[in-house]
Amino acid sequence: MTSHVFLFDLDGTLVDSRVVIARHWALFAERxxxxxxxxxxxxxxxxxxxxxxxVAPSLDALAEAAVLDAGEESDVDGLVLxxxxxELLDRLxxxxxxxxxxxxxxxxxxRLEAVGLPVxxxxxxxxxxxxxxxHPEGFMRAAGALGVEPSVCVVxxxxxxxxxxxxxxxxxxxxxxxxxxxAEALREADIVVPDLQGLDGALEARPLRVSPAPRP
Length: 216
Prior knowledge:
Layout: E1 5-8, E2 15-16, H1 18-31, H2 36-43, H3 48-55, H4 61-73, E3 80-81, H5 85-91, E4 97-100, H6 105-115, E5 123-124, H7 137-146, E6 153-157, H8 160-169, E7 173-177, E8 191-193, H9 199-205
Parallel strand pairs: 1-4, 1-6, 4-5, 6-7, 7-8
Antiparallel strand pairs: 2-3
Helix pairs in contact: 1-4, 2-3, 3-4, 4-6
């Protein structure tokens, strides 16, 4: 396990934030007379502004995202650890892992602190990249900050957009965690696990295919 370099998503991968996310997207949907379910189907793993631009293109996506993200930042009611997350991070050298999340920096720090997880030395957030997932920019930045190529990294994700970003970055292996999406939605991942308790065995049991080269 310690021989791998891990690039983790945050929400749904280390922290189960489904309750909070659903609560605030429900408020957004109510404000704008939108159906909630289509929004929840596409919002996980993506920046709020990117989701809003897709589901409600007539709105000011950046302004609406600022309101939604501020609400989520102040709300920690219902946040829980994904099983195995704390134990896994405790075993890893701080120089061997990073977090790449679509949330903004203050939100990411708030959620990590709320569940008692450490804030990593390398934390790439949605407000620090020009292009959010499924673009590979975040994972490529994180690998670079750790001083390695994406091709030696294990990306751990819970959403199709994140899995796609990991593959596009050229990660050695992409792991899908079925917190927010069923296994069939994560079929582009190399390995699919229900939580992080089984990650050690899953990585040992399956050969890791080499991903395509990252986009230029």
